[in-house]
Amino acid sequence: MARSSAQPPESAPVAVVGAGYAGLSAALALHDRGVPALVLEGADRVGGRVHSGRTEHGVVIDHGGQWVGPTQHRLLAWAERFGCETFPTWETGRAVELWHDGAVREFTGSGPDDGPGVAEYHDAVARIDALAAGIDLDAPASCPRAAEWDAETVHSFFRRTVACSEARRRLDLAVQGVWSAEPREISVLHLLFYVASAGGFDQLMDTAGAAQDSRFAAGAQAPALAAAERLGDAVLLGTRVDAVEQRGDGVVVRTSRGPVRAERVVVATPPPATAGIRFEPALPTARQRWVQRSAMGDVAKVHVVYPRPFWRDAGLSGIASLYGADATGVVFDNSPRGAEFGVLAAFVYGDRLRAWSAMSARDRRAEVLGTLARLFGEQARNPLEYLEKIWPTDEWVRGGYAANPAPGSWIAHGAEGWRAPCGRVHWAGSETASAWHGYIDGAISSGERAAREVLAAL
Amino acid sequence: MARSSAQPPESAPVAVVGAGYAGLSAALALHDRGVPALVLEGADRVGGRVHSGRTEHGVVIDHGGQWVGPTQHRLLAWAERFGCETFPTWETGRAVELWHDGAVREFTGSGPDDGPGVAEYHDAVARIDALAAGIDLDAPASCPRAAEWDAETVHSFFRRTVACSEARRRLDLAVQGVWSAEPREISVLHLLFYVASAGGFDQLMDTAGAAQDSRFAAGAQAPALAAAERLGDAVLLGTRVDAVEQRGDGVVVRTSRGPVRAERVVVATPPPATAGIRFEPALPTARQRWVQRSAMGDVAKVHVVYPRPFWRDAGLSGIASLYGADATGVVFDNSPRGAEFGVLAAFVYGDRLRAWSAMSARDRRAEVLGTLARLFGEQARNPLEYLEKIWPTDEWVRGGYAANPAPGSWIAHGAEGWRAPCGRVHWAGSETASAWHGYIDGAISSGERAAREVLAAL
């Protein structure tokens, strides 16, 4: 089992920085090939942006990443390997949208069939998918129009190409929901790459058959915990990495519990956390710039626990989209598999998160419960439990879901700075993945790719 | 005199991180008020992005910042205080522009009177100045159109508002020259703020009467060296700061030479360097995001030394602008005051820097000398000396001239994250300045502002 107060050994063939899914995946792939890898994790738990827990009433919830979809083959393989059961995300009933002018509309399926801007939204999505089809997932900056796409923010792109302001409202919320960023913060190229990486815009947006298809009965951290269990005392918790010093004959990793010598190092932290590690010699400029210009998205996830999923009585699915002044952008029914309790999960993103997180704890709660009451009735005001996870304040992750490169970063620094090894240092993390970039699945495949690099070099 | 191998004292009333102009200014302002401040500098010299030297032939050159202009009151005050002489930048004669199609045009004064796109360029500059007039220098994100301006890249803005592609070429080079960044990397709001901060677009661009008005006879580092001399052994070189830990009763600054306890700390590094310091408790999210989303510009400065300024014989000023495939974007006559030698300084920016710095040293030299030969004749191919300073690879500064916030950063994080003190930690650096932001003058005023904050708090 992962150790949290042990001194690290003096040396290991491979050191892995970070025990999120990417780091665990790299270590497990090496372990499966008989190469011991020591995993160094600053936090007191594994899983990174995936963190499951039980509420006071014993309800399993996921404070972070939670879903798995049918084309997420690597995560599904882990679920299978470690015997982690999944179940379909609840979407039976009518979803609700609360429009900016106060109008409330209900619909079934993955989105409204009509309503302001719906047709134009679908047209825009079709155009985005068509453009995304031209992206090379292993070299996003290499396609002919990459320079043009990386020079424009998604905000400007929508203003320029989508005449209907109501459709733009829908697109803006989609961007907030998928990238946990405002459309001004990412480039068109990054949007297109991300869409291509998932297999299409609706793969990112939809529930059944797409990214939000299913959940883990024991929480999405379960496969990570099982992998850590398999790795045993090769996982060191509470061990912060301060520096990575490459020498001619190896690497010295300086940790808060002492140095570790290794042949190779896999750094599997989100890019902004990499900026806090001192590298000797300094990383190549392209890698430095890539890291510097990648910032975590801004998201908070609020769980509200009720005695039962009362909204289902009224034929509501618990899914909602909010286009107005509410802090909440999107709501899902996150009740446990057997629905012994009713759980709603409210997501707060970007600008709305900044305003909401500046409120007092009491006001934040009142704000979210008020929104849920308008959506689902007055019962929503009296939950059994209310839990918040504001990811930007997480000591180790400092945001979510993923880091987004600033406009211009792909074209200027992507070719060399994205994930190319720097000497004996290899890079993992969902931000280095080609398929399902930014998702748990991408984290796992990135660790496996880094492990292959290390095996080829050892 | 600054010490480079001493153990720091156990404590000081104020610790200043970084001995660039901002850090020296903060320490000097405190020193002048009788408050001792200890300056901790990782490099083995003071001056930061300002670094003067002598070539083998004894010619004074500035590898980094070098100019002073008439409205840069704080830098002029330091020049006066420390008796550092200045002299006008050489601009007698005809400047040259090498157009993208190979055409060569000559002109006198600060820019061409005619030529492709000249009139439209001036129209665009007038519009920029008019928009910049609405910026509040102490709160750039507060103006009514800030959200709109911060959501669009300068690249998109020029495409949308400047129909003439030839004018856009001129604007693009202006942006590269002033921000050492590509137009896609900065937002319209940051451009407007910077213009307002300098007092107008032409203040940024012009020589006589503007930002490039004069140079320092002994190099632009001379005032910094004099300030450090005044501070004596309160300046510790070769002392890297790894962590800043705030406690209830003070701050512990962890350095590569041991800890220092202080009442207050002024962090006066460029924002990206701040990301390498571990803060306990973690900085507020807005400050973290601001730092994460600010990246240094990309610039190299090449000095080529000749026996004499031979271009002056042909009536050329040595000033050139290049719009084609050359690595060099802009050339200045950087000869010493008495012109005992002739010196040309070639600036390489952004994308062109990335391509050029990937070449071998031999090819880089041949490329620049070939450009100078086309501009000033074959004599340019045979210099006495050739010196490069590629700022992105500088161990401590890692870019230049300044850090530019990514699009969307001002509006999302600027209000709280720009320069508001975080407990006992205060912020200095040219990137925190209102007037002459990004310039030496702004660095000095930022240090003085931080010193005022500290004095008010002690």
TrEMBL record, chains A, B:
Domain Amine oxidase, chain residue ranges per copy: 22-455
Keywords noted in UniProt: Oxidoreductase
Highest taxon, organism lineage: Bacteria
Pfam families (alphabetical): Amino_oxidase (PF01593)
Cofactors required: FAD
Recorded family membership: Belongs to the flavin monoamine oxidase family.
Annotated protein name in UniProt: Flavin monoamine oxidase family protein
Species annotation: Saccharopolyspora rosea
